Model the fold of this input.
Amino acid sequence: MSRIGRMPVVIPKGVEVDIQGSHVRVKGPNGELSRVFPAAVSIVLEEGNIEVRRSSDDRTSRALHGMTRALINNMVVGVSSGFEKLLEVNGVGYRAEMSGTNLMLHVGYSHPVTFEPPEGISFETDARTRQIKVIGRNKEQVGQIAADIRKVRPPEPYKGKGIKYLDEKIRRKAGKSGKV
Done:
């Protein structure tokens, strides 16, 4: 059996879970998330915990068992504490700033690149550390928005200029061989 799938999802205080067949709705202090899961797994609410069980041992049920439990856990964590991704802007003259709720990126183009946050996502910038924080309750959406921001100017290997994740290591290249 899946080690992840067997673990119960603990529901913290202040979080309400509503399970109707394969439709799960989670409501908490940060908002509400809902999702429909495949019928190959059954979701049961017992004693303040959510348990995911699979109906058979076929390949699709085994594949969906751990994934369903992880998605439900991400929903519970998202509505209770939320998720965040940190990005760092490196380069001379490169900066990120807020314009109302929109994120403005000045990263070497002739124009600033504007990001308008979708519902449930917010941005924070720190001019001193040159960091961008993407905050939200949906883990998939936070990761996708952070990837879209990074895609505006990915880090290059010679000088390291660009937008990178805070914990990302950039493999640097030597450059021209004639240079000492």
